[in-house]
Amino acid sequence: MSISVLIIARNEEDKIENSLRSLKFASEIVVVLDRSTDKTKRICKKYTNKIFHGTWVCEGERRNFGIKKCSNEWIFEIDADEVVSDKLSNEICKNIRIKKFDYFYIPLLNYIGTKPIKFGWMGCLAPDGKFCLFKKESKVWSKGLVHPGYQLKGRKGPRFRFYIDHYMSKNLSELINRFNRNTSLRSIELRGESLKKFYSVRKIVSRFLKSFVLRKGFKEGRLGLIVALLNAIYPYISAIKSEFSKN
């Protein structure tokens, strides 16, 4: 059965080829370039001619645009810093042949450098999985600047056994840059809201415990501690940035 792979990218020349090389199972690769100015397009041309350009403020809008450009019934969304193993590609091809399901949840394994961080993640930094395999009419993204929500319809399939390798940060500095970018985007979304609810020591502590204890971030040692701290202060820093942008 045919499947389209959708990649949304912006200036990903250092990462995207590893992702593209892993997509041999795809019958179509659709790339949406958002304000990309580096060599990403040149690299993508080696793997596909379905490359689209544009400028989108909201992540959800550009993802919906990309979904419309896919020509197959089944779509697999992947980011430019994600890689599909042979075991996962076989699992994808096997499951899309099951007619009774409309979408699937696939776990992620997030990396800092070459180290996989299996525990402690929260959605503000990186998810630990996502509904990224779906029939074309089964998923619609909502508005949002960073990590927007989406609506799914149809019947959910079983959780996948194998995971996507997500090489999200080359090092700790790049992780901090990711945190800074995400909080800046979130601060824009908070404008016009009452920000008092974000200035709460209790909520900061609660988020830290969720990441470090409930999600077992302590198993990752010092990196798990850093991830938990960033998760804990994410709403607070976003709110502060929003407050200062008014002045």
End-to-end separation in angstroms reads 55 Å
Low-confidence stretches: none
Instruction: Briefly note the structural class of the backbone.
Output: alpha/beta
Give, in order, the helices and strands: EHEHEHEEHEEEEEEHHH
Largest sheet: 9 strands, mixed
- Rounded mean pLDDT is 94
- The general outline is globular
Q: Strand-residue fraction?
A: 15-25%
Number of helical runs? Answer: 7
Oligomeric state of this protein:
single chain
Number of strand segments:
11
State Rg.
18 Å
The helix content is: 25-40%
Q: Any overview of this molecule?
A:
- The protein is 36% helix and 24% strand.
- The chain is α/β, with parallel strands linked by helices and 247 residues long.
- The strands form two sheets. Strands 1, 2, 3, 4, 5, 6, 7, 8 and 11 form a nine-stranded mixed sheet that branches.
- β9 and β10 (150-152) form a beta hairpin.
- The model has no long low-confidence stretch (mean pLDDT 94).
Which key terms come to mind for this protein?
nine-stranded mixed β-sheet; single chain; alpha/beta; 247 residues
